[in-house]
Amino acid sequence: MLVEGVERNKVRLLSHNKEWENEFLQVKSQIETIWNNNILDIQHVGSTAISNICAKPILDIAVRVQSIKDMDVDSMRSIGYDYCGPQLGQDTYHLYVLRGARL
User: Fold this and answer.
1) pLDDT the model gives residue 24
2) What does the pLDDT look like over 5-16, one tens digit per residue?
3) What is the distance of C-alpha 96 from the center of its chain?
4) What per-residue confidence (pLDDT) applies to 91?
5) Which long-range contacts (CB under 8 A, 24 or more apart) does 46-52 make?
6) Counting CB atoms within 10 angstroms of each CB, which of 5, 69, 78, 100 has the fewest?
7) CB 57 within 8 A of CB 5
8) Rounded CA separation 10/33 (Å)
9) Rg of the Cα trace of the chain?
10) How is 51-95 classified by DSSP, letter by letter?
11) pLDDT at 103
């Protein structure tokens, strides 16, 4: 995996890597397999999604679903993601973090 995270309270910027897009497509495919008909949209967001800029080596993906209660949390856990629950004080933003990623 090219995207490797950043230690807590540290910022590390790397030159843009074209392989980040391929990694996004792989993760997108995994999520589509798990959440299939519940997905409305999946986007590669954040600095790794922008060509020709330095970026924090963290892959950010935004997924819009039809129903939050139909998100299959257990299947996401089975492929290595920890569910961190609602974020930003709103029930409409939920966070998953790849296990082993340094935050």
Assistant:
1) 94
2) 556 777 789 999
3) 7
4) 78
5) 48/3, 48/16, 48/17, 48/20, 48/24, 49/20, 49/21, 49/24, 50/16, 51/16, 52/16
6) 69
7) yes
8) 34
9) 14
10) TTS-B-S--EEEEEES-GGG--HHHHHHTTEEEEEEETTEEEEEE
11) 37
pLDDT in tens, 26-71: 999 999 999 999 999 999 999 999 999 999 888 899 999 999 889 9
Higher pLDDT, 102 or 74: 74
Domain ranges (residues) in the chain: 19-98
Q: Which CATH superfamily is domain 19-98 in?
A: Beta Polymerase, domain 2 (3.30.460.10)
Neighbours of 4 (CB within 10 A): 13
Which of 26, 36, 39, 87 is CA-nearest to residue 65? 39
